[in-house]
Prior knowledge:
Elements: H1 16-30, E1 37-38, H2 50-63, H3 79-90, E2 102-105, H4 108-114, E3 125-129, H5 133-141, E4 148-149, E5 152-153, E6 156-160, E7 178-182, H6 194-207, E8 210-214, E9 240-245, H7 247-250, E10 258-261, E11 267-269, E12 275-277, H8 278-289, H9 295-303, H10 307-333, E13 338-340, E14 346-350, H11 355-366, E15 368-369, E16 371-372, E17 383-387, H12 392-405
Parallel strand pairs: 1-15, 3-6, 3-7, 7-8, 8-9
Antiparallel strand pairs: 2-10, 4-5, 9-10, 11-12, 13-14, 14-17, 16-17
D-malate binds next to loops.
Amino acid sequence: MIKINENYLKLQASYLFTTISRKVEAYAKDNPDKKIIRLGIGDVTLPLSKSVVEAFHRGVDEMSRAETFKGYGPEQGYAFLREAIAAHDFQARGAQIGAHEIFVSDGSKGDTGNFQELFAQDLKIGIPDPVYPVYVDTNVMAGRTGVSAEGRYEGLTYLEGNSGNGFVPAPPAFPLDLVYLCFPNNPTGAVATKAQLKAWVDWARQHKALILFDAAYAAFIRDPQIPVSIYEIEGARECAVEFRSFSKTAGFTGTRCGFTVIPDTLQIWDQEGQGHRLMDLWNRRHSTKTNGVSYPVQMAAAAVYTPEGQKEVKELTDYYMANAKLIREKMSSLGFEVTGGENGPYVWVKAGTDSWATFDQILEKAQVVVTPGSGFGTCGQGYIRISAFNHREKVIEALGRLETALQ
Ligand code: MLT
């Protein structure tokens, strides 16, 4: 008899977006004549851009010729990609990050989920609420929590986001070991100012805490005053890991590529109080558990950093941000309280009192799929998240339908 990892039994029956797609499939089956518009999961709809596709093709062509064929690549990623990332995403913004501190992967969902493996079981973990469910669920799977009671797991410290703090929780007045932060935020679309991030960095340094900073939506920031990387904040090299993704930046949700930044200055400690470089531990894990990302995909990702590629991906993100503006304006004009949509591709809307009931009502009356806010935590109850990732005409049609359905 094979015994189960009991921690899995503490989880909700299915992952949030799996539950939503089951509900939508059931609705579609019962209503085959209805045209459903999906503004639920943040999945891109525009194709890969020209330079990215050309580089992807070049990579495949190289794999087809004996002289340029490549077998296993470096697990951390090819130097050409790591160097381009360090130069463009960090050094160009005054953030001192070197290519050796970049670890290329198949996306930041896996990296944000797997990173907790490097840490002891008895850490004090701070998790924002509402939050991208991967951070919570992976710590539950690893056995760092008790059971869930009324939507909250015992053993986790929840950092509440609400309209009072603009969905940017401040550092607590007590120490924690590990804190997950995500800006621009998924699900609320909120962004943290330099002063707000500085407060987190100062707090982390004071308490020797580590911040796991998810910046998957960094490319959507439009306000030049908002920091794009946590390493723009002084002291962050001593206390923060950053996760980035090409998924939303360059339309790679189906192509898969992202990276994690671990400064060589970051240490964690063993029971004897001996320090270990965090990057060495991640490298140990990474080289044991993965052979990295395929060469053509890394070629495609590197093309994002060419002048042409930069222009193209700006156009892609501008397109979604124009959708976000339409969503934000329409929902505000209908009298709803809205957050996000200005520097992030999600609009967070206060609608009704029960998020799943509002989700059902919108699906049935408007045939529009949104994401129920309570799926991101108890503080999300009474909210819905509307994603800007879809074609313009579908977004416009969905907003017209929402206007009718919600009045
Ligand atoms: C979301 O809709 O929250 C995202 O698409 C999830 C993800 O990136 O994994």
